[in-house]
């Protein structure tokens, strides 16, 4: 390939077909991930409102520790890097906590601290 683009014009048609087949599956998986994340955030939004209504802290480190241990074990069984699974969960949970904090602030209860681990 002479340019930096990732086009496949000069590639064997069989290779191009295999790449297209794999990319179709990747696109389906990415769509499933987006839909699953959307459902997860719908649940966590409800958790955020519940916590705000009952003055519960946005973050629950003990719950997170259990989630991480569980996800790392699932990842190992699935032959996925457990460190990646943990980073991915932490990334999502950090965003959820930001949402919870915003919901708490908007409901006039923005001072809650984290629960003890
Ligand atoms: O389970 C909760 O208490 C949540 O607020 C949800 C959630 C999560 O996204 O899974 C987010 C923040 C908490 O620190 C722990 C877990």
UniProtKB/TrEMBL annotation:
Keywords: Isomerase. It holds the Pfam family CM_2. PROSITE patterns: CHORISMATE_MUT_2. It comes from the Bacteria. InterPro entries: Chorismate_II_sf, Chorismate_mutase-related, CM_bact, CM_dom_sf, CM_II_prokaryot. The keyword Isomerase applies. Residues 13-104 form the Chorismate mutase domain. The keyword Chloroplast does not apply. NCBIfam families: CM_mono_cladeE (TIGR01795), PRK09239.1 (NF006691). PANTHER family: CHORISMATE MUTASE. This is Chorismate mutase. It comes from Streptomyces glaucus.
């Amino acid at each position: 390939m002479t340019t930096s683009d990732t086009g496949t014009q000069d590639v064997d048609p069989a290779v191009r077909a295999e790449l297209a087949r794999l990319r179709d599956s990747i696109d389906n998986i990415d769509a499933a991930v987006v839909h699953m994340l959307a459902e997860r955030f719908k649940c966590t939004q409800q958790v955020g409102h519940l916590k705000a209504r009952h003055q519960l802290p946005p973050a629950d480190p003990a719950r997170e520790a259990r989630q991480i241990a569980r996800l790392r074990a699932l990842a190992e069984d699935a032959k996925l890097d457990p460190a990646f699974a943990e980073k991915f969960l932490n990334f999502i949970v950090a965003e959820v906590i930001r949402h919870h904090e915003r919901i708490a602030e908007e409901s006039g209860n923005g001072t809650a601290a984290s629960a003890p681990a």
